Amino acid sequence: MQRRVEPEWLDTLEPKDPRAAASRDDLRRINAWLGSAAVVARSARRATAAGPPRRLVELGAGDGRFMLSLATRLAQSFGRIEVILVDRLAAVGADTVRQIQVLGWRVETVRADVFDWLTAFQGGPETLMVANLFLHHFRDEDLSGLLGAVAHRTAAFVACEPRRTRAALTASSLLGLLGCNQVTRHDARRSVYAGFRGLELSQRWPEPHGWRLVERRAGWLSHCFVASALGNSTGEPGAR
Questions:
Q1: d(CA 239, CA 51)
Q2: Angle between helix 65-78 and 18-34 (nearest 10)
Q3: Given pLDDT bands bounded at 50, 70 and 90, which one contains residue 239?
Q4: What does residue 124 show for φ and ψ, rounded to 5 degrees?
Q5: Which pTM value belongs to this model?
Q6: Which region holds residue 125: left if phi is over 0, alpha if psi is between -120 and 50, else beta?
Q7: Which distant-in-sequence residues (6+ apart) come within 8 Å of 106 by Cβ?
Q8: What pLDDT, in 10s, does the model give residues 60-82?
């Protein structure tokens, strides 16, 4: 399948719209089913093997519950760090923020366009950035620009995205059996068509020299991409 990016319904709905709230609940269950937080946590530890980050940024953080799931897996190994949740909509609930704070992490929520925010953000070698089900929203030219901005502001980046395969497309058509609503079912197919395979993300990373790039299948339906500055990480099996 050729990669194809089309608008998803959830991106057009206000956070308080009941259909949006139900779809975010669906995404939480789908993430749990796919094991996305475990994939990102495992890759994040390897990408920061030289020392834990002081700042963790999630791009396209949505309602923040993916970060909560990630934080429960990383709090012990990362210790007390700062978390920045960036999204163009204000969907992070106060209870989610409190649950992350209970783990000893400082939380900042930012409502902003990701390109505008990255332009102003300083970042640095002690910053880890992650994204889950976010990169596939961007067409190739915008994706290259986004990854270029990320590369200049972090020492490690981990993304978990849909894998563009027939198996994933078939699975997306079965989400109604899990009780997912119409928004989720509609967006799931578009997410697969906009997903990734092979080395498509590595080929758009702007600085291949000085970085360890790992791109691989994660389970049957997900695609994992990890970029870590050389000397900052350990190797990861199953690369490419």
A1: 22
A2: 40
A3: very low
A4: 140, 180
A5: 0.93
A6: alpha
A7: 80, 81, 82, 83
A8: 999 999 999 999 999 999 999 99
